[in-house]
Write a structure and sequence with these properties.
By secondary structure, this protein is an alpha/beta fold. The protein has helices at about 1-20, 25-50, 55-70, 75-135, 155-160, 170-175, 175-185, 255-265, 270-275, 305-310, 315-320, 340-365; strands at about 140-145, 190-195, 200-210, 210-215, 220-225, 245-250, 275-280, 290-295, 300, 325, 335. The protein has an eight-stranded mixed beta sheet. The chain has a three-stranded mixed beta sheet with strand order 1-3-2, covered by helices on one side.
Length: about 375
């Protein structure tokens, strides 16, 4: 009995192992489905690289052939499900490809247009350049001078030596030599610029220095520019411009610039009250100025203290009983002009009176 029971148990175990080793019908169908799906994916991937509906029809035939070779077509409901899934995937693939086809055509057309544009531009640009160079637009037609007041335009054009009806760009690229020649014409010229206007014309923009003061030397007046340069050509008193200071006794360009810089910082009312600025240096002070005021007073002041101390002048001058000197060199003092000047003036008047009396006596003696 014990042996029989053991044999029965062993047989049961063998049956279980055999049942576990053999796949069920569902597992076999699922395995076939996976194989067919992998095969179909390979075919679909291959057909994606091709175009047109004809390739899609061939794809369906290949799928049917593969299904026939594998066998058991339409034998089970699982195969029917697989075929339905194949048909749905085919329709999806057809729809997506048809949607992509117009976009592919547009993309190819745009790419073709870009290539055509590039090729045409490569030939068109040199052609347009040659036509422009030969045409009248490539030749210099006119030269204008603007913003000049002191230097004549004819002199500037003659010095620049730009040639009309000659190639424009060759002269434009060599314009620096013409600019250097123009700047040497006159000390009035500060900067020069040449630019192209109206396609084929040159415009010479001239920037000139401003006149800021006059220098009195003897009985002659000379222009002083904003860079401190004193012009060599004298001008008459009638040509003096009102509102500009008159300097006297200055020999240093640096001292002129320093004085004018301090002068322009003064309020307008103080500028109008000064008639003349003299440089009266001493051994211990080379920056001493003597200002001749319109009210017949004189102010002694240093250049560095011109903007600090001169505003007090109006109050000091109002307390003075007669014209005199306001000394602001160290502190602030006022005193009348030296009496020697008055004595010399009185003596000169007496001498003139005595001379007139002597002349009258000389005239009377011949009559006697």
């Amino acid at each position: 009995m014990t042996i029989s029971t053991k044999e029965e148990k062993q047989s049961k175990l063998d049956k279980k192992e055999n049942s576990q080793k053999k796949p069920t019908p569902w597992q076999e169908a699922h395995q076939k489905y996976l194989e067919e799906k992998t095969l179909m994916d390979k075919i679909l991937k291959k057909n994606k690289e091709q175009e047109g509906s004809a390739h899609l029809e061939e794809h369906s035939k290949e799928v049917d052939q593969v299904a026939a070779q594998e066998g058991e077509k339409n034998d089970s409901p699982i195969i029917e499900i697989l075929s339905s899934e194949k048909s749905t995937e085919r329709t999806r693939e057809n729809i997506s490809f048809s949607d992509k086809l117009p976009k592919m055509k547009d993309y190819r057309q745009r790419k073709l247009y870009r290539r055509l544009t590039l090729i045409i531009s490569l030939f068109l640009i040199p052609l347009v350049g040659c036509i422009y160079y030969i045409s009248p637009l490539g030749q210099l037609a006119k030269v204008d001078v603007v913003h000049n007041q002191q230097v004549p335009s004819e002199q500037i054009v003659k010095t620049a030596n730009f040639k009309i009806n000659e190639p424009l760009w060759e002269q434009y690229f060599s314009r620096q030599s013409a600019i250097q020649k123009i700047q040497k014409i006159s000390p009035w010229i500060k900067a020069v610029n040449v630019k192209i206007v109206h396609f084929n014309q040159f415009q010479i923009n001239v920037t000139e220095y401003h006149r800021v003061a006059y220098l009195l030397t003897g009985d002659k007046y000379y222009d002083i520019l904003e860079n401190g340069q004193v012009l060599k050509n004298p001008i008459t008193q009638d040509q003096l411009q009102s509102g500009l200071p008159i300097l006297e006794g200055f020999t240093s360009k640096k001292l002129i610039l320093k004085t004018l810089k301090a002068y322009h910082k003064l309020p307008e009312e103080f500028k109008q009250s000064i008639s003349q600025i003299k440089s009266t240096p001493r051994a211990e002070n080379d920056q001493l100025l003597t200002l001749n005021m319109n009210d017949q007073n004189q102010v002694l002041i240093n250049i560095d203290q011109l903007t600090k101390k001169l505003p007090y002048y109006a109050k000091v001058a109002s307390n003075m009983q007669e014209p005199g000197i306001v000394d602001m060199e160290v502190g602030l003092f006022t005193y009348p002009y030296p009496k020697e000047e008055k004595k010399t003036g009185d003596s000169s008047e007496k001498m003139s009176d005595s001379d007139s009396e002597n002349s009258e006596s000389v005239q009377e003696n011949p009559q006697a």
